[in-house]
Specification:
230 residues, mainly beta, Porin, 71% strand, Beta-barrel_OMP, Opacity protein, signal
Length: 230
């Protein structure tokens, strides 16, 4: 882990001795997208699946040939088709829940420090701060299996961390980028949970405030994107 910090520190403090391209003053727009899908088959219940997407878009500017900063907006959406088996008076009842069950939106500011290997490729790393709101809904059967419970969670998160990536130059206007590491050093989140049981009018609410300090990196964190210079 000490070697990881040493490498990141060298990357941030170092600068290219030879200017391979005039980047200072150039503005860019970048985007990354990912989709996910999973399917589960059970002998006792009908199949269930989960799906969703994540999309980030950023707008930045090179302050020098080796330093850039900017803002980004991120969104996510999640959905599923789930089947739950409950027993009423000993009789099995299958309940299907289908549709969107999660949504998130966030805004952040980033600083990036670059090391250009040659005219085509290089690496970058730097700190970022983010604010994010997430809304999600989950279901589960009660402990005795007689009813279906629902949890609705609203979460606001503030975080600060580091990220690192690679770039490859396709042309004067287009780059391909790839994230290779990510860390949220510090995060604070406030959550509001509302729980209910479908066969009952009882509802409970819970508010929590959590914080986390985790000075570690996650390798690899692969996410591909594109960047266009304006």
């Amino acid at each position: 882990m000490k070697n990881t910090y040493f490498i990141i520190a060298l990357l941030i403090l170092s600068s290219s001795q030879i200017v391979l391209a005039q980047l200072e003053g150039q503005k860019f727009i970048s985007g990354t997208a990912s989709v996910n899908f999973s399917n589960t088959n059970s002998d006792l219940q009908e199949s269930s699946n989960n799906y969703g997407y994540n999309f980030d878009i950023g707008l930045g500017k090179f302050k020098t040939d080796t330093r850039a900063s900017g803002w980004k907006i991120s969104t996510s959406l999640a959905g599923s088709k789930q089947n739950f088996l409950t027993y009423v008076n000993g009789n099995p009842i299958n309940t299907e829940k289908n549709g969107i069950n999660g949504f998130g939106i966030g805004v952040g500011h980033f600083w990036q420090f670059y090391k250009h290997f040659n005219e085509k490729a290089g690496i970058y790393a730097g700190p970022e701060i983010n604010a994010r709101y997430n809304n999600s809904k989950t279901y589960q059967t009660t402990s005795d299996g007689s009813a279906l419970g629902e949890n609705k969670i609203n979460t606001l998160t503030l975080s600060a961390g580091l990220s690192a990536g690679l770039y490859y130059k396709l042309s004067q206007k287009w780059w391909v980028t790839a994230n290779i590491a990510l860390s949220d050093f510090v995060s604070v989140d406030y959550s509001h949970l509302k729980s209910s049981v479908e066969s009952s009018n009882n509802t409970t609410a819970q508010k929590t405030l959590n914080y986390q300090f985790s000075p570690s990196f996650r390798f690899p964190v692969v996410g591909f994107g594109v960047r266009r210079f304006l």
